[in-house]
Amino acid sequence: MSDLMFGLLIIILVAGSCLYGYFLHRNKIFPYQPVKALFRKFAAQGYSDHGWAIGTYVGPSPFHSKALLNIKKPALTAHDVTDMEANSVGDPFIIRSGSCWYMFFEAIRRVDGVGVIGLAESENGKDWKYKQVVIEEPFHLSYPYVFEWENDHYLIPESSQDYSVRIYRAIDFPCKWEYAGDLLKGYHFVDSSILRHDNLWWLFVSTKENDVLNLYYAEALMGPWTQHPHSPIVRDNHSAARPAGRVLMMDGKLYRFAQDDHLAYGSQVLAFEISEISRTTYKESPAFGGPVVKGSQAGWNADRMHHIDAHLLEDGQWLVAVDGFREASYK
Prior knowledge:
The chain is mainly beta. It has one domain (31-325): 5 Propeller (Tachylectin-2, Chain A), CATH 2.115.10.20. The protein is built from three helices and 20 strands. Strands 14, 15, 16, 17 and 18 form a five-stranded antiparallel beta sheet that branches. The chain has a four-stranded antiparallel beta sheet with strand order 2-3-4-5, with no helix packed on it. It is globular.
């Protein structure tokens, strides 16, 4: 075989492999799922010492970007998880009950890369102690959006592998939860973020492509849920679609957070001010002229940050939980 023919054969094989890989990913046909599971297993075993980790901050503003970037030490890492072997923790949501703060977060099992919901506790919001895994399903769970309503605690995790937006109710807070039903069903719903505003429930939901944000509303928490007439409110935009934490009310203004996935998954978090939201209208605009958090270039959160959850304290300070990622090359 001549060198020319050999070169053409190599080009055809490479091009064909790329097209076949794209076709598998696009259409999710066999053997997409086995290959994906195998990749996730090896990727899970190859993460750095911290991988995704969680940090907390107490300060005068939830938008103090420099302070959030300069959190010196993570509050929680995979090494703190004691009832299973984990390689990563992230997506922290915090809530206060009585005199204690509780943090619910995604923990990734090292053995198979599947996410479960973990719990940590703190008396002061600064020093956190891991407690246990509280919700585990046969499919991946993450983004445990916890909130209180009418004296009950609820938690909405991402359950996109179940083609649903599941909701859980605490039967013995914070450790025991029961599946209460589905808010939405039939698609890969990603990082659902709920809001109670103007006597309505609002649900921001992204998709597995991370470039669309849909909006739903309901009069009752368990529905029925109606898609907003302007939904999707974000389309074809990997920098503004996927939710990145609890929707925040501050100084009478509503802010939603989005993770920027344009160049890399979860590279930074952007804020958007919601200026109008009703059954028939929705308006928002970028806030603060840049990212709220991003990779700090050093330490545990050197490369990426993709989540924020902020709570106003009684003394006017803010307790903020974030997560960050460090590549294995950082020490």
